Amino acid sequence: AQLSCLARLLAAKNLTADFSSFPPDLLLFFHPSEVRAGSCREFYARASRGNLDLLPRGSARRTRLLRGALSCLGVRGSRLEPQQLGSLGALVCDLEPGTIPASDPAILDSLKLCPALTGAQQGALNALLLTGDTAYGAPSSWDLRTLQDLGPLVLALNQTTLSLVAKAAREDFRRSIAAAYRSQGRSQREKSLILLRAFAAAAAAASHPRLKRSEDRECCQPINASTIADSVLFLTPEELDLCLSSDILIENLETVLVEPVTSETLKILKKKVDEHFPSGIPEKQLSRLGQLSRLYTEQEISQWSVTSSDTLAALLSPSGGQWNDSQVQQLLSRFLALGGSLTGPLLREMGGERLCNLQEEQIQQIPAEAIGTAGQLNISLCSQTKKELFYRKAREAFAGLASTPSLYYCRIQPYLGGAPAEDLKDLANAGVAINMDLDTFLALNPEELQKLSVTDVKNLLGANLRELKKAEHEPAVVSWVQRQSQRELDCVLGIGLQGGRPEPPGTASPAGPSTPASVTSTATVTTPAGPSTPASVTSMATVTTP
């Protein structure tokens, strides 16, 4: 709507003559009457490079744009010449289907610009290719290079066209897609899978003559270790079900699962695995399931024998794909019920969101030493109760570092969202500037934050004190400020926080500077030894805040 308004405004001010300085997207909204005949070719060539999806397909504005371009280029019938096609660019995506076979074969290169073709356009494209009168020649002569040169047009090929392509060329092309699949991102992988499915359908149509009838069922040459990788790509799920033995699958499971197989094929593979282990999948085989494991229901997972942390880590590995939360919960429950223990590497493998999905009693079962070896865990998404449980485990795990406050803080920092005010005060008065960052400060339990004094906050933030001003409108900060003396906020912090409690009339001003430019305080603090606080910290502290 904004681009449309801008286009009208420019036209009203007669600023459309020099369109070369306008972005192509904006040109899509110009009315053909605003385009001068002498420069219309350049106009439409530039406009065709815009994002046509900004105009709904079939809309009056988009139809008018194409008609204006055809009129400018002098197109009178259905045939388009190479020079005209070059000026139309992506506008060819809206041409009538009959224009495709009637035009110069160079139209195929222009059609590669189209995100998608209508069914009628795809039919016309195949009709043109079937004539053999294009740069690609007859489909029966195509090889791997030809299919690759067709690029996105391959997605528009129908079974009639594909069935004429030599089987060797089709399979070479599918192998090239499969080889590229492993290094592609998610969106590109989806396109590759679409290609693979299209070729699987064509292969099925072309391959049925090799099947023979046996006892009213179609069967084929048995799959072996040397053919299994190609078979899962090139056979239909029905053929795979008939031709693949469970023994061969189990022996070559890793080989199969690295291939970009479809969801339908995965279901057949799961069926074969279950047939091979009618009494349940042995634990040593569970770690080999990879993406197949994600097809099992919570009820099926509850029967698994998961006793080893290595097995659980293999199952949780992201290389196998995304689990549902309910599946992970069942998997962890089963592991713990069988006597398993969550180790540091396992906690790291689980990640933040899965950690927060643990039940409270499961968190309580985590050994403190596991927290100590897990590295920094993200518990920011956990409920407050679970944060407090994780904090207690971490406090126990790092108790031995309490005599070195700076090191203790580095290890305990990810868990401070569950810390009580007493422990935060101990950190603030440990005699060493810990320079808590603002994100950690804002992640503290809001109820516990309210219990901190102005000096506590000053000592916790240290060199990052001035950052607090940026967060003065955060609810927890607003509430904390309102509980403090405004005079103390001014004299101790001196960063411009407003909203504190006014002093009663006649109250003497506290001694001290009005800004935190050089605040020196002497604190002697004795804290009891134990896992909850740094042990017996007695020091003379000098804190300077810039």
UniProtKB/TrEMBL annotation:
InterPro entries: Mesothelin, Stereocilin-rel
Residue stretches of biased makeup (Low complexity): 508-539
Gene Ontology cellular-component annotations: cell surface; membrane
Subcellular location per the Swiss-Prot or TrEMBL entry: Membrane
Example of a GO biological process term: cell-matrix adhesion
Residues covered by region (Disordered): 497-546
Superkingdom field: Eukaryota
Keywords recorded for this protein, A-Z: Cell adhesion, Glycoprotein, Membrane, Signal
A Pfam entry, by short name: Mesothelin
Main location: membrane
Family the entry assigns: Belongs to the mesothelin family.
PANTHER family from the UniProt entry: MESOTHELIN-LIKE PROTEIN, STEREOCILIN RELATED
Name recorded for this polypeptide: MSLNL protein
Organism: Cnemophilus loriae (Loria's bird-of-paradise)
This protein's encoding gene: Mslnl
